[in-house]
């Protein structure tokens, strides 16, 4: 995970330095956050992007400098805004028009000036699944750049509203176009759209917005043979699009920030399961598929059920010469959609007690975990240089019952 953080930091720093600007890389904690993770990321020179009271509190508990933390959310609570302002975090990303006034009033009540960005939606639709592409128009995030006839776009209106409030300091404009993006072209289109808004604001108000955040979404390889997005290429294309738009619009380059989550922690994580029941099932076409049930499932990885996501699994506790057989890895929950790996070839002698590893589960696995069927959530163990260190304790049934008021 640390190595991947360095790769992103170095690729974007190199591209920005060459173009004559600077970049901040925010690790998107929604992918997976713990106190240890927040510390590692700051040690690698990354900042932390949070999206809830829990994530913000975790980053603060880890000792991350408040100025290096950002807060997102399409429906921020009063408690989230209050903690962000009291602790002096670096930026609150505004997601709607009502939030402009809410944050301004909260800042006035505390006697502080709130550093804010405005999240805009560019109409660029990118990413792996409809549920994870976030910048098309008909969804809940951000403020649209599309202007109805003769009117300001919601994004322009929000920026003008921010500039009219002395309690708010406009740091930048934000765009996040989706997740698990494998073609960097969408970032360039979005960069140009946001640069156009920046030019409009400069023309109308004389204010040159200092920073653009182009979000996260950098895609990873989930299966053997998948080709991940290349961070160096993404950095170069993003910066080139900003520079081209800057030349056309006669604008200096802004400072850049990005918010990768999945691409930092996804491939760094492996889920270890123990095989239980193994059941050959005759399918409709007469062939046999072996259902390999493990001691977890949709409660620790909802992605196959939610997005139809594919993963790869291998038996890691022993070597086997048995001929491979067509398997489906399933969980222990009361849903037939409780699938961990739809289709994988495992040795034909796969048996109860084998340890099965599923690769690339570091992002949006444990962080989206539930306790469905009152199955306690697994622990998280960090491994480095052959040393294993638990960083999140395994939950117990007693932990779950501790919440039960009887
Ligand atoms: C605003 C924002 N930033 C960053 C991310 C992180 O995305 P990813 O994990 O795909 O890099 C997300 C999630 O898609 C997001 O909504
Ligand atoms: N949770 C999603 C991505 C959403 C990213 C957050 N905006 C996934 O597992 O792919």
UniProtKB/TrEMBL annotation:
Gene Ontology MF terms: diaminopimelate decarboxylase activity; pyridoxal phosphate binding
Known partners and oligomeric status: Homodimer.
Alphabetically ordered keywords of this record: Amino-acid biosynthesis, Decarboxylase, Lyase, Lysine biosynthesis, Pyridoxal phosphate
Family designation: Belongs to the Orn/Lys/Arg decarboxylase class-II family. LysA subfamily.
The species this protein was found in: Litorihabitans aurantiacus
Domain of life the protein comes from: Bacteria
Domain Orn/DAP/Arg decarboxylase 2 N-terminal intervals: 18-265
EC identifiers of the protein: 4.1.1.20
Protein name: Diaminopimelate decarboxylase
Active-site residues, as the UniProt record annotates them: 334
GO biological process, any: lysine biosynthetic process via diaminopimelate
Reaction catalyzed: meso-2,6-diaminopimelate + H(+) = L-lysine + CO2
Gene3D superfamilies, A to Z: Alanine racemase (3.20.20.10), Lyase, Ornithine Decarboxylase, Chain A, domain 1 (2.40.37.10)
PROSITE patterns for this protein: ODR_DC_2_1, ODR_DC_2_2
Enzyme class (EC, first level): lyase
Start and end residues of each Orn/DAP/Arg decarboxylase 2 C-terminal domain: 267-362
Annotated metabolic or biological route of this protein: Amino-acid biosynthesis; L-lysine biosynthesis via DAP pathway; L-lysine from DL-2,6-diaminopimelate: step 1/1
Annotated pyridoxal 5'-phosphate binding sites: 217, 259-262, 364
Coiled-coil segments on the chain, per record: none
Modified residues (N6-(pyridoxal phosphate)lysine): 30
């Amino acid at each position: 995970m640390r190595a991947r953080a360095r790769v992103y930091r170095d690729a974007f720093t190199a591209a920005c330095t060459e173009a004559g600007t600077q970049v901040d890389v925010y690790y998107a904690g929604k992918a997976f956050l713990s106190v240890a993770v927040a510390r590692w990321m700051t040690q690698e020179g990354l900042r932390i992007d949070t999206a809830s009271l829990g994530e913000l509190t975790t980053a603060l508990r880890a000792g991350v400098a408040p100025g290096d933390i950002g807060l997102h959310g399409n429906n921020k609570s009063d408690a989230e805004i209050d903690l962000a302002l009291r602790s002096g975090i670096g930026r609150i990303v505004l997601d709607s028009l009502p939030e402009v006034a809410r944050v301004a009033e909260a800042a006035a009540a505390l006697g502080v000036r709130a550093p804010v960005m405005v999240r805009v939606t560019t109409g660029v639709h990118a990413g792996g699944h409809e549920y994870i592409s976030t910048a098309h128009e008909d969804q809940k995030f951000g403020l649209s750049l599309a202007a109805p006839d003769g009117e300001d776009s919601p994004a322009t209106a929000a920026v003008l509203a921010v500039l009219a409030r002395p309690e708010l300091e406009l740091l930048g404009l934000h765009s996040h176009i989706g997740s698990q993006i494998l073609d960097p072209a969408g970032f360039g289109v979005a960069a140009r759209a946001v640069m156009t808004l920046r030019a409009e604001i400069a023309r109308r108000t004389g204010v040159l917005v200092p920073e653009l955040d182009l979000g996260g979404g950098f895609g990873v390889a989930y299966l053997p043979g998948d080709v991940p997005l290349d961070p160096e290429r993404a950095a170069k294309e993003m910066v080139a699009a900003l520079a081209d738009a800057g030349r056309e619009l006669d604008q200096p380059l802004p400072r850049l920030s990005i918010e990768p989550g999945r691409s930092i922690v996804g491939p760094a994580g492996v889920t270890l399961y123990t095989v239980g029941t193994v059941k050959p099932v005759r399918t409709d076409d007469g062939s046999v598929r072996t259902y390999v049930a493990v001691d977890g499932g949709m409660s620790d990885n909802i992605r196959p059920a939610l997005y139809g996501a594919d993963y790869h699994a291998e038996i890691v506790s022993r070597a086997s010469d048995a001929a491979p057989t067509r398997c489906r890895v399933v969980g222990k929950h009361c849903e037939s959609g409780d699938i961990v790996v739809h289709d994988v070839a495992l040795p034909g002698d796969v048996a109860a007690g084998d340890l099965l590893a599923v690769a690339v589960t570091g992002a949006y696995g444990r962080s989206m975990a539930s306790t469905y069927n009152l199955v306690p959530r697994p622990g998280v163990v960090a491994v480095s240089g052959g040393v294993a260190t638990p960083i999140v304790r395994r939950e117990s049934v007693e932990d779950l019952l501790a919440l039960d008021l009887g």
